[in-house]
Design the sequence.
């Protein structure tokens, strides 16, 4: 499918961008390599058998600490994939100014083949392996959810960590993406999808960019196709629908569906729950292969499942004018070249799906500072805020009601704070990358511009810190 492995593709993109920077070749090589690779095998009792589980944790960089990156549960997990995903995390964090270095983990299992009890045993044993080798901790390396994992697994991880490190006051900050009741933050669940939406909305608002693509400005009325209805795909599709776009195509494992008038995401999810498949959704046309979605008639294609799905073979058939990489590494380098030639805009994974890590940063800060975000305790603020409300009303001569009154009296909700921080982050990152691209017309695509931004930020860290010893 591609001449490059996943890590090879990341290295190729890095090299392509490095020529637009002025860093010493030694620094560039150091930024590119993975600093620490932990490949492990451990036994777990499944029924009356002992199963040997293969797993990984890769810390791509230590230019900032802790390292940060999700944990993937899938049969396809391998060292090359985990290295590539760890490297992308370094660049992602740099672009959105989240002070972490990149890491990633994975367990080579099909989670659907295990009971929740067995998955818990595997997750806890994996966590204990990370603890033994100092590959996890609030100031060392902080995992998060990724493909095949979610809040449940993160709760098992934090519980295992806290049990094995009794008395560690910051234990909650050893992992993010936890349930809200276990130190998680409101807004983390939908953060990656919302970040994808904010990033693409910003691109869609740029008149010069849209003129080049021959598309009208704005989200309203855009036809969107999403591959993968998991955490990232579902929320991305929902936010597009809520803001006036038409989600015309969706795909899951079992196939794809299309309706040029738009599909109702919630109803499709409900249909899949009851019928076991997205196929045969009323009013839509079925496609037997899930990859058919990639070639559907639309304005924006959003791959939100796994890597290497758009490649040299199917890229010539893609009809979208914009590809929003919600998944990590969905395009091969061959596809990238085809899209650059065809004038199709690829909005790259390495910042577009940074919503998860951005909100994870808020969660980590909340855990370390041992506070709650948002609404202040009524008893602390009521008198002062009631006074402020009175002042505003007498100055403006108008009564303040509804949401505004709530905001003045009690401050914003945690989820509103988180979302506004995320929105600002994604808008700033999009503009920064576009500015670099516009200032240097020799940069061939937005991905390369994003890498230039990332390399310059990580390079600056090395230059300022010096090389030890
Ligand atoms: N979860 C996060 O916060 C996060 C953050 C950044 C990036 N990502 C990336 O987003 C991607 C998806 O992650 P997720 O967390 O949504 O995973 P998930 O497990 O919640 O969902 C993935 C979905 O894709 C479906 N799928 C798998 N192969 C498919 C195919 N060939 N065609 C159509 N559907 C397919 C699966 O059935 C599943 O429903 C991954 O590349 C991940 O690395 C996730």
Sequence:
């Amino acid at each position: 499918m591609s001449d490059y492995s996943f890590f090879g593709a990341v290295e190729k993109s890095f090299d392509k961008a490095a020529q637009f920077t002025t860093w010493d070749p030694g620094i560039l090589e150091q930024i590119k390599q993975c600093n620490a690779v932990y490949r492990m095998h451990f036994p777990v009792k499944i029924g009356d058998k002992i199963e040997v589980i293969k797993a990984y944790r890769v810390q791509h960089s230590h230019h900032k600490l802790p390292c940060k990156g999700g944990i993937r549960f899938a049969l396809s997990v391998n060292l090359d994939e985990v290295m590539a995903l760890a490297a992308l995390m370094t660049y992602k964090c740099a672009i959105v100014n989240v002070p972490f270095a990149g890491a990633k983990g994975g367990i080579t299992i099909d989670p659907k083949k295990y009971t929740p009890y067995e998955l818990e045993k595997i997750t806890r044993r994996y966590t204990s392996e990370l603890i033994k080798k100092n590959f996890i901790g609030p100031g060392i390396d902080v995992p998060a959810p990724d493909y095949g994992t979610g809040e449940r697994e993160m709760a098992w991880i934090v519980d295992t960590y806290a049990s094995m490190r009794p008395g560690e006051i910051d234990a909650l900050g050893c992992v993010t993406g936890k349930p809200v009741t276990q130190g998680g933050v409101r807004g983390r669940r939908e953060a990656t999808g919302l970040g994808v939406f904010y990033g693409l909305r910003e691109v869609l608002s740029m008149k010069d960019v849209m003129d080049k693509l021959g598309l009208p400005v704005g989200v309203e009325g855009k036809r969107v196709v999403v591959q993968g209805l998991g955490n990232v795909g579902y929320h991305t599709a929902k936010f597009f629908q809520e803001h006036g776009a038409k989600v015309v195509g969706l795909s899951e494992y079992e196939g794809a569906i299309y309706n040029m008038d738009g599909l109702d995401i919630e109803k499709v999810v409900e249909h899949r729950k009851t019928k076991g498949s997205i196929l045969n959704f009323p009013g839509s046309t079925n496609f037997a292969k899930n990859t058919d979605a990639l070639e559907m008639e639309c304005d924006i294609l959003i791959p939100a499942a796994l890597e290497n799905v758009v490649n040299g073979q199917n890229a010539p058939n893609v009809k979208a004018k914009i590809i929003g990489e919600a998944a990590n590494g969905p395009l091969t380098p061959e596809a990238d070249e085809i899209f650059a030639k065809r004038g199709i805009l690829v909005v790259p994974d390495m910042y577009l799906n940074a919503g998860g890590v951005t909100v994870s940063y808020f969660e980590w800060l909340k855990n370390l500072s041992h506070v709650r975000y948002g609404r202040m305790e009524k008893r602390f603020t009521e008198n002062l805020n009631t006074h402020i409300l009175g002042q505003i009303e007498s100055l403006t001569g108008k009564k303040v009601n509804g949401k505004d009154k709530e905001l003045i009296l009690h401050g914003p909700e945690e989820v509103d704070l988180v979302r506004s921080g995320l929105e600002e982050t994604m808008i700033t990152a999009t503009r920064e990358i576009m500015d670099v691209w516009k200032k240097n017309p020799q940069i061939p695509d937005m991905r390369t511009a994003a890498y230039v931004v990332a390399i310059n930020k990580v390079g600056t860290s090395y230059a300022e810190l010096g090389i030890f010893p």
